[in-house]
Amino acid sequence: MATDKYDFIIVGGGTAGLVMANRLTEDSNVHVLVLEAGKDQTSDPQVTTPLLYPTLMGSDADWDAVTEPQAALRGKTIRIPYGRILGGSSAINGQLFLATSKVNIDAWGELSLGWNWDILAPYFRKSFTLSCPPPGDPVYDHFYLDYIESSVNGTDGPIKASFPSDIDNPIPKAWIETMRSLGHGSSADPFSGNFTGAFTNAASIDPLTRQRSGAASAYWEPAKYRKNLTVITAAHVQRVILTGDSPNVIATGVEYVHNGENKTANAEREVILSAGVMHSPKILELSGIGNPDILSSFGIHVAVANKSVGENLQDHPMTGLSFQVKDDIKTVDDLLRQDPVAMEVAMKQYEDSKSGPLAVGGVLSYALLGLQDAFAKQIQDSGRYYSSLFQNPKEATVTFCAQASQGNFGAEAGSSLLNANFLPGGYCTIAAFLLQPLSRGYVHIRSSNPSDPVKVDPRYLTHPLDIEMFARHMTYISTIVSTEPFASLLKPSGRRNASAPADIGDVEAMKEYITKTTLSSWHPTSTCAMLPLDKGGVVNERLIVHGTQNLRVVDASVFPLTTRSNPMATVYAVAERAADLVKEDLKARK
């Protein structure tokens, strides 16, 4: 399309941005421009092959944010990968596909009218298709897929979700059986919104091709030849062009750099920021929307004063323990060590039959649990949502996951999963993600130069309740690994990962371990929160930036509270609903 004028300009061709692009261009009269900073790598085997995602961390496909030194974690800096690639983080993550909870989304609605589980649930279903083998199939039985409820899952959505086809890994089966013996069987399907317990999770992997199913393959590729859709990759947005005064500021276009040239694109209807949790607030600040003190210090004209822009950053802190397994238990440790023989065997298996370890996503075995001791009853002064959540055993505050490899806990910012100093032998790791942390951080610009990286400070575990809860969750791992049949997978007196406490059931020892080993789960959210302006909001219930008429944010930054799971599936659902909101507003303006 040879023009610099479009109805809609979407900044960011990631998980949310490509959903918006697809849905808006369903109307052939609507012309959309997508500006993506990364490249199109949809045919790259590192992207399409499920278990090769660790090779993308720290690559050109990763913005590779590094936090400020974390005060509660001994001053350590932590890497938070997120996608600089067409498809965004859906192109580089571990492919876990899981809904958040009804309680979580209903809490959004209490904070921002117009959102609740009943409203959002249909958009979860709209976004994906779940492929599940029938009862009696060996895969169904091995992974205990009896929790699946077809009525709450998608049947014709773009994202393809599936389960592994290999059943020679004993860990998922032992995980479910152990958790059931501890009273943690799955209570329902996760997409019902009312779920706790252990299960084998679905992954965003096409069941036929055994390739990653992400926003680029599922939403962009079917739409890329539409004449009313233009996608420009390697386009670095500098700012949104704004006119007028708050509360009637109008976004008229976007300035960006492409192939070394400064360019301007004009928006007739709206500008939509889908640049992610780190870059949507960055672009707002560079455009003059944000804390006046920050903007003025960098000589940026203040178009809309809002001290909440970039604040409210939330993430799931994560750590875990690795246990040596018996010699006959298969793990992927040799692949993580990049052993050439193991890699050659796995690649051949994948190429020949789309099977083997490379055909499987990052994690199979999950459990969403609440606090397992009396500490929950002591939590009184953490707000109505959190107090009721922590004290309700039917609501999860931790994710445990088991995977057949060592973890890289305690890694400094310069380390990655593939260059860790792994111990010899095979291991099973049980990791824990603190799902509803009370700590809050921020993302802000460092200067007025758009090329400078953002300043990121999640302030992990700075709220005192977080480490108390985290430590008690982590000590429960001692119960899991000493319970059959999981216990029989591990070597008696086998090695554990470096710095693991001698007594993993000791709360105080676990607190010490947590401060040394906590990492990001790669689940940042909430830096442009959907809340009323006087409650710390950046966007309203229709995702329009406060103080503006036609500038929206659609990505995980709008979540007022972080999800009770990894956020990807919720990003898809929110983007699907956002597309309908935009269409409604477009129709109302005609």
Write the layout of secondary structure elements.
Blueprint: E1 5-11, H1 15-24, E2 32-35, H2 45-48, E3 65-66, E4 79-80, H3 102-111, H4 117-127, E5 128-130, H5 138-142, E6 159-161, H6 170-181, E7 197-200, H7 215-220, E8 229-232, E9 235-243, E10 250-258, E11 261-273, H8 276-287, E12 289-290, H9 292-297, E13 304-305, E14 311-313, E15 317-324, H10 333-336, H11 340-353, E16 365-369, H12 384-390, E17 398-403, E18 427-434, E19 441-444, E20 455-457, H13 464-475, H14 477-481, H15 507-517, E21 519-520, E22 551-553, H16 568-589
Parallel strand pairs: 1-2, 1-11, 2-8, 5-6, 11-22, 12-13
Antiparallel strand pairs: 3-4, 7-16, 9-10, 10-11, 14-19, 15-18, 15-21, 16-17, 17-18, 19-20
Could you explain the architecture of this structure?
Helix content is 26%, strand content 18%. By secondary structure, the chain is an alpha/beta fold. The chain has a domain at 67-80 and 134-210 and 314-520: Glucose Oxidase, domain 3, CATH 3.30.560.10. Strands 1, 2, 8, 9, 10, 11 and 22 form a seven-stranded mixed β-sheet that branches. A six-stranded antiparallel β-sheet has the order 7-16-17-18-15-21, covered by helices on one side.
Features:
590 residues; alpha/beta; Glucose Oxidase, domain 3; seven-stranded mixed beta sheet; 26% helix
